[in-house]
Amino acid sequence: MQASAGDRVIMHSRTVGEHERVGTVLEAHGKDGEPPFLVRFEDGHEALVFPGPDVHVQHASHG
Fold first, then answer.
1. Own/partner long-range contacts of 13-18 (Cβ < 8 Å, ≥24 apart)
2. pLDDT class of 19 with cuts at 50, 70, 90
């Protein structure tokens, strides 16, 4: 999985009744856009994300 600054990370909930978390990638700390990603979530919280199978990257148009 690759991402770059400006891409959106969508973390789907595996628990019934819980909402998905959406955030914006600030930085990719791995080689060539690989994880982990520094993400700012909609509530302003920033975290280092190591994506698993419940995470989807929505690429921003870069151009």
1. 13/54, 14/54
2. confident
